[in-house]
Amino acid sequence: MSEVFSATSADTAVEGAEDPDLALARDGDDAAFTRLIEPLRRELHAHCYRMLGSTHDADDALQDALLRAWRGLARFEGRSSLRSWLYTVATRTCLDIVETRGRRALPVDLGPSSDHTVVGDNPLADVAWLGPYPDAGLGDGPAGPDARYEQREAVELAFVAALQHLPGNQRAALLLFEVLGFSAAEIATTMNTSTTSVNSALARARKVVEEKVPSPTQQRTLRKIDDARLREIVAGFSTALERGDADTLAALLTQDVTWSMPPMAHWYHGIAAVIDFALRVPLTGCGSWRHLPTSANGQPAVGFYLWNDDLGAYLNWSINVLTLRGERIAEITTFIGPDHFPSFGLPASLA
What we know:
Structural class: alpha+beta
Domain RNA polymerase sigma-70 region: 36-103
Protein name: Sigma-70 family RNA polymerase sigma factor
Largest sheet: 7 strands, mixed
Keywords: Sigma factor, Transcription, Transcription regulation
Strand content: 15-25%
Number of strands: 7
Distance between the termini: 52 Å
Helix content: 40-55%
Number of domains: 2
Domain SnoaL-like: 235-332
Shape: globular
Pfam family, one: Sigma70_r4_2
């Protein structure tokens, strides 16, 4: 598949002298190529995450895409910006991965909520789970003038989860059009298809996303909350778990709150079910907790650590992403596993 991309309105090439690093890179200078792509690495990684729903898959996709770009740089004709061309290479790389790995899921995608607390729930290893994304990895690159979603809105859990319900071509078309501001004609070139097909894919994708993504977005909700108040909410949630305080926890939740814990299949809906689960499992049944605040998917998040007697330390246990409605928590998504922590820059243990 050719990786030559025509100029795009999302980032049209600047006329004039060619970047000397580009000429050096074409001649095989890998240091020059690194200088070229380094300013774009973070935003390209975020694009791969939106496509794939996994930080680890995004790591693999970006590495593969940059290798493809390095090998194919001689075919880059300069009719577009390097940034636009790299987005084309990255998108095609992600589409190849989508074809082989399928979509990622959250527990809510697998079945109805549990009507009673499940103690000793076992992880499902045969499910490809959606993962959290560290805000430090969000790209700062500009979106196109016609982009609908801002960069942080486009990594919110609800949006990325909704994308997973789309076939790869619809997913790519929506992201390129609504997040990056590419035109339908430009997307058709990227995906080797017709403008008519792109417009059809966009219409179907928009319908699914509108049905699955609540309004307002988290970014709009968070902008209405004072920073100090937001810290109070996060601290209240965290200390309630550390102290086993069900009353304080309940006061922070909406009546229709949900709590899910990938890779566990069971999830809970409604304050009665959630508090019953909290009382029987994290508040009393797990042991002693400590926490560190962080941020994931453009949302407040907390890294929790669980005491380990054998090692005499608190070990990394889960990244908890909070979805707010007003000043209450409407969703708790607990991503269990120490493998989530390195990308957030959080330590493996606390003394």
